[in-house]
């Protein structure tokens, strides 16, 4: 199963033999190494840089968790005692906090030794290794940094909360563009590829796929061509079906279904306008919220009507988007099944 990232809030699923994608994220299986030329290079014309990725050493706590998980008996008993794997990991955090300094010393010493070696490698063989790409700062950090460069040091969070979606869009678009480049650089760093090697491909992510048996029997050139064709066709189709970013929570759904008052949602519209009107003041945002709540309670129904109308309009647009979503998912399932059937037919013919 391959998940393809499309426009924001849009996620479609396409069936595709996982050989190419598995190679990018899990390394090349031994039986697919052909004359030193990897499957990724053959499929997408990627070029190795000869530079090795150098990861930072594990911190002491991570070493402690690794040791606990490396013992199968202790791991199974810990999961059984705590109920779930996540609760077992949480219990390890509590266990680590109860350790004395002497008990932590072994993990701390091992970390310091590895960190010293890590720094020595970077200093003496810097051309052989390269550091992991840094994740770009989000939209809010970009805004606060811009304000700081203009000499604004107070009230930045209140101004950001009061900004409209259109005003925030330049910062969010800049973040999304940098994130696309970051994902590509991260894949290249992980597999020692030259920078820009995968710029002509799509940024891929995988979530749960089976390793194919007899993978060497498949026609690689067919997979590469079909894969790119699938990406292009699905992007064109779903560009017209941008889905809603978030569903309505249970209680608001109950309100809408029974025609109850939507004062909470309407108040958010009022609060947005109120915060914008007070953006120039230096009053903390939590105090502004309390003041706005008091003003809202004293407003008449006529004064609240514009905000409730705005909320009702958004709700109608959301329901229309849900209908488009349902139709888009059904169509995507049909296309995925058709593509999978075509690949299966070609595979049977090649055999």
What are the main properties of this structure?
three-stranded antiparallel sheet; two-stranded parallel ribbon
Protein topology:
Layout: E1 2-5, E2 11-14, H1 19-26, H2 39-44, E3 52-53, H3 60-70, H4 72-82, H5 85-98, H6 101-124, E4 129-130, H7 139-149, H8 156-162, H9 165-190, E5 205-206, H10 220-238, H11 250-258, H12 263-277, H13 285-297, H14 301-350
Summing up helix and strand content along with how strands pair, one would put the structural category as: mainly alpha
Mean pLDDT metric: 68
How would you sum up the global shape?
extended
Beta-strand percent range: under 5%
**Low-confidence segments:** 1-40, 202-221
What's the number of extended β-strand segments?
5
How large is the radius of gyration?
27 Å
Distance between the termini: 23 Å
Count, helices: 14
| Number of spatially distinct domains | 4
Series of secondary-structure elements, N-terminal to C-terminal: EEHHEHHHHEHHHEHHHHH
For the sheet with most strands, the description reads: 3 strands, antiparallel
Largest beta sheet: strand ordering: 2-1-5
Roughly what percent helix? 55-70%
Subcellular location: Nucleus
GO molecular function, one term: DNA binding
DNA-binding region: 54-130, 133-190
Domain HMG box: 54-130, 133-190
Can you describe this structure in just a few lines?
InterPro entries: HMG_box_dom, HMG_box_dom_sf, HMGB. The chain is mainly alpha-helical and 351 residues long.
């Amino acid at each position: 199963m391959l998940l393809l990232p499309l426009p924001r809030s849009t996620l479609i699923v396409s069936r595709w033999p996982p050989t190419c994608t598995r190679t990018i994220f899990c390394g090349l299986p031994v039986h697919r190494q052909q004359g030193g030329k990897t499957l990724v290079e053959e499929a997408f014309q990627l070029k190795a840089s000869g530079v090795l990725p150098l990861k930072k050493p594990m911190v002491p706590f991570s070493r402690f968790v690794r040791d606990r998980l490396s013992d199968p008996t202790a791991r199974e008993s810990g999961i059984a005692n705590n109920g779930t794997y996540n609760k077992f990991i949480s219990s390890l955090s509590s266990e680590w906090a109860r350790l004395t300094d002497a008990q932590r010393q072994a993990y701390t010493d091992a970390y310091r030794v590895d960190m010293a070696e890590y720094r020595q490698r970077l200093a003496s063989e810097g051309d052989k290794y390269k550091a992991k790409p840094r994740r770009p700062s989000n939209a809010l950090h970009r805004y606060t940094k811009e304000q700081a460069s203009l000499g604004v040091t107070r009230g930045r969070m209140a101004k950001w909360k009061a900004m409209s979606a259109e005003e925030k869009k330049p910062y969010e678009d800049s973040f999304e563009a940098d994130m696309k480049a970051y994902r590509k650089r991260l894949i290249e760093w992980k597999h020692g590829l030259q920078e820009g090697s995968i710029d002509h491909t799509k940024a891929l992510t995988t979530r749960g796929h089976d390793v194919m048996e007899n993978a060497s029997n498949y026609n690689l050139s067919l997979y590469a061509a079909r894969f790119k064709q699938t990406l292009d066709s699905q992007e064109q189709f779903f560009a017209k079906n941008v889905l809603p970013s978030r569903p309505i929570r249970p209680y608001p759904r109950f309100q809408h279904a029974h025609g109850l008052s939507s004062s909470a949602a309407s108040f958010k519209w009022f609060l947005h306008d109120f915060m914008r009107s007070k953006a120039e003041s230096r009053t903390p945002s939590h105090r502004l919220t309390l003041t706005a709540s008091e003003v809202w309670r004293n407003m008449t129904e006529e004064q609240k009507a514009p905000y409730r109308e705005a909320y009702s309009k958004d709700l109608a647009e959301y329901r229309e988007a849900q209908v488009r979503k349902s139709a888009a998912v059904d169509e995507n399932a049909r296309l995925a099944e058709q593509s999978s059937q075509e690949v299966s037919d070609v595979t049977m013919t090649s055999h």
